[in-house]
Amino acid sequence: MRPVEIKKDIHWVGAVDYNTRDFHGYALSPNGTTYNAFLIKDEKVTLFDTVKHGHEEEFFENVALAAGGLEAVDYLVVNHLEPDHAGCLVETVERVKPEKIFCSPMGLKAMDSLYHMKDKGWNIEALPTGANLSLGRHTLQFLETRMLHWPDNMMTYIPEAKLLISSDAFGQNLASSERFVDEVDRAKLTELMREYFANIVLPFSPIVQKTFEQIQKLGWEIDMIAPDHGLMFRGKDVAFAIQQYAELAAQHPTRRATILFDTMWHSTETMARAIGDGLKDAGCEVTLMHLKANHHTSVMTEVSRSGAVIVGSPTHNNGILPYVAGALQYMKGLKPQNKVGGVFGSFGWSGESVKIIKEWLTSMNIDVVGEGVRTKNVPDAEMLAQCFDYGRQIAQAIEAKMEACGVK
To answer: Which of 24, 53, 252, 295 is catalytic?
Structure first.
């Protein structure tokens, strides 16, 4: 991709990665991603971020085309030090030889352990929230967004262009020849935003809400958001992006349930279907996800939109099946909020799985309904009726949770 002028004298100079299928531990197939970098042509030509290692030649070509040569770059702003944003930072400094490098205070602390720059003679300045940097016709203003999603993250705002370079916030993973969200299918874009949020940003939801408050306090007027991954938002889509993030960060419970399970000889699967029937009968939308067939990326995306997460496993070696354990570990790290839970499983002789899963969900502050349901070997008609009733009980718990959270 060649550079794209997104505002007068401001260019996208990133790289498109159609082939990557793993990103921060979650699956991207078939969408790929982009590593967005930006350049302002002014009295001080300024480059924002770099790209992942392996895409540097596309990046350097774009920078040279937009700036009129790599040697034309005066300043380098590093909004985030993670390798998908700064993977060719060292080579960029060597080739561009910027007059000065700017980063957040936390970025300055992390710079040496990541890139060992103390012996390289880099001229670096840390810019805290509220700092201003004049480039000539453009001014840069900075907002630290610590733990959104690394300690060093910051955003850069250009008031003359009403442009927010938002780092990891508002991102999506999509490799595309388009650069703006109004050029692609809206439903697909919305789902990609949810997937990105659910698998990266979810544990930092309170920081998202705090960031919105800080932006309002700073008085920033924004008519374009340029994230470091995916497509950019312009015009009316800025309000769309903010609304989507506000809703995702609020994690309001919904009349939806996700049932996660693994099974050995289909007994636990049969129970899952009966619980789902009970939920559906009580007015809930239900998604059943066999964990052997669904990557934890899709699992977490579904959990994020649900008011209940119900987990089942047969007892295996006095524990739970590995795919269930893996899904629970991944989920716990992402800290979903405002959920009710359910547990179920089958066993042959010892029967610990239901208790173990309940302990997992309880440790995530998920309100588990009752003690769950379990059956020895194959569930009979009476057990399936209990499962159906358990689904209805979970549906009632969802309604109570929604009421408690003020959701209609």
So the answer is: 24
196 is catalytic: yes
CB–CB of 103/111 below 8 Å? Answer: yes
pTM of the model: 0.92
Find out whether 39 and 73 touch, Cβ atoms under 8 Å. Answer: yes
Q: Is 42 exposed, middle or buried (0-12, 13-18, 19+ CB in 10 A)?
A: buried
The residue among 119 and 406 whose pLDDT is bigger is 406
DSSP assignment letter at 319: B
pLDDT band at 187 (very low <50, low <70, confident <90, very high): very high
Q: Is the pLDDT of residue 81 over 80?
A: yes
Catalytic residue among 26, 35, 157, 196: 196
Question: Which CATH architecture best describes the domain 4-250?
Answer: 4-Layer Sandwich (3.60)
pLDDT for the residue 145: 94
Residue with tokens 């670096």: 124
Tell me the domain boundaries of the chain: 4-250, 256-401
**Annotated catalytic, 168?**
yes
Q: Which residue among the candidates 11, 229, 296, 316 is catalytic per the annotation?
A: 229
* Class level of CATH domain 256-401: alpha beta
Q: Of all residues in the chain, what percent carry a pLDDT higher than 90?
A: 85
Identity at 30, one-letter amino acid code: P
Q: What's the Cα-to-Cα distance from 194 to each of 15, 137, 298, 360, rounded to whole Å?
A: 23, 37, 10, 24
If DSSP codes are grouped into helix, strand and coil, which group holds residue 309?
strand
Q: What percent of the chain has pLDDT over 70?
A: 100
∠ Cα 228 232 237 (to 5°):
135
**149 belongs to the catalytic site:** yes
Beta strands in 263-378 (DSSP E): 285-290, 308-312, 340-347, 367-368, 373-376
Average pLDDT, the chain: 93
Catalytic residue among 80, 85, 138, 316: 80
The one catalytic residue in 149, 245, 296, 390 is: 149
Q: Which of 56, 144, 168, 195 is catalytic?
A: 168
pLDDT digits (tens, 9 = 90+) for 358-386: 999 999 999 999 999 999 999 999 999 99
Tokens read off for 244 = 């989507």
Residue where the block lists tokens 């950019």: 232
- Give the 3-state secondary structure of residue 190: helix
